[in-house]
Amino acid sequence: MKPAPPVTRTHLGRPAAAGGTAANYTAAWKQVLATANQVGRTQAFRVMQDSAEQAAPHDGLGIVGFAGVAAGAIFMRDALPIEKVLLLYEPFASAFPYESLA
Questions:
Q1: Do the Cβ atoms of 41 and 76 come closer than 8 Å?
Q2: Chunked in runs of 10, what are the mean pLDDT values of the chain (102 residues)?
Q3: Fewest CB atoms less than 10 Å from the CB: which of 5, 16, 81, 86?
Q4: In this structure, is the dihedral angle defined by the CA atoms of residues 46, 63, 97 and 52, taken in order, positive or negative?
Q5: CA 17, CA 87: separation in Å to the nearest integer?
């Protein structure tokens, strides 16, 4: 009998969904963009995203794009399933607890 394969976990210790974290992240981001367009918040959404990217450290570590994604998800949190928002926000969870963003 073969042992079960190891379970991939997210930053928060939860098991990652089938298809991989990258696929889930991409799908969630596409849903954020579609929702922003559907509810008429595209311009405000882009301003929030751009502001976060400008404020992020430009040190070559690639955090700038993630900052924009997280800010966009948080801006749209009232129109999206919370699971999608948290997935996109997760890279910042240790530095900025979700509760502190209210």
A1: yes
A2: 55 53 84 89 86 79 77 86 85 67 60
A3: 5
A4: negative
A5: 11
Structure tokens at 78: 């009232």
User: What is the distance, to the nearest Å, from the Cα of residue 81 to the centroid of all Cα atoms in its chain?
Assistant: 12
How many separate helices (H) and strands (E) can be counted in the chain? 4, 0
What distance in Å separates the CA atoms of residue 47 and residue 41, rounded to the nearest whole number? Answer: 10
67-88 in b/e form (b: 16+ CB < 10 A) is bbbbbbbbbbbeebeeebbbbb
pTM (2 d.p.): 0.62
The domain segmentation of the chain, as residue ranges, is 21-97
